[in-house]
Amino acid sequence: MSADAVVLTSVTRGYPGGVTGLDDVSLRVPRGDFLAIMGESGSGKSTLLHCASGLDVPTRGSVTIGGVEVGRMGEARRAKVRREQVGFVFQSYNLVPSLTVRQNITLPLRLAGRAPDDRWLGGLIERTGLAGLLDRMPDELSGGQRQRVAVTRALVARPAVVFADEPTGALDERTAAGILDLLESLVEDLGQTVIMVTHDPVAAARAHRTLRMAGGRISGVRHRAGAAA
Ligand code: ADP
Ligand code: MG
């Protein structure tokens, strides 16, 4: 098992028309790291997230997830790596409205043809406080509850890394703090690696490190006081 969850080496992602999404970015994310990515709109945050998660491939450079090079894989093989190694949490939750909470949570396993690990799943549901909500439909939940379902779903396949794109962007301050508590506990107690794009300095302050993006490059890195470098 690779010691690093994600490694980007000299990753450039160009778009048609000469637009540069990412410009020669190198980044090592050790297992257990909690990384925040900030930066103005258009600075390359989404492109970085997409390349680092195997949703997209770089024009140049290398991307490994859990030690596996995905930068030159075709979509089908990348989809398999994503199913096995990557969890996603989005601002808009992206739950399937026609499935119950329980079915939403276990969907990644069904897609991968895997049986749930009942002990892991039970522990996760206890941690995320969803035990009483498993038979509800998503539209019967509050925003904070929906995001807890999405976080549980992201963890269900025990991924090498969870990518969170503005996970608290649609939540009020108090509910957002609850989701950040949850993400923090996953990192601190379970050693889960989390990479989170956020506009919120309060959210970024929970991470071990915060990268600032500008013009497709990493323009600064800040370590939280007391966090391992
Ligand atoms: P952010 O997420 O920080 O707002 P993005 O990664 O979405 O930034 O965008 C970085 C740059 O790449 C911007 O100039 C944007 O316009 C451009 N870009 C992003 N996606 C595409 C695309 N699919 N086609 C063309 N240009 C794109
Ligand atoms: Mg974006």
Could you walk me through the main structural features you see in this protein, from its secondary elements to its overall organization?
The chain has 7 helices and 10 strands. With 229 residues, it is α/β, with parallel strands linked by helices. It has a single domain, classed as 3-Layer(aba) Sandwich (Rossmann fold). The strands form 2 sheets. The protein has a 6-stranded mixed sheet with strand order 6-7-8-3-9-10, sandwiched between helices. Helix 3 runs parallel beside helix 5 and helix 5 runs parallel beside helix 6. The longest helix is centred in the C-terminal third of the chain and has 18 residues. It is globular. The mean pLDDT is 95. The site of adenosine-5'-diphosphate has 11 residues, from strand 2 and helix 1.
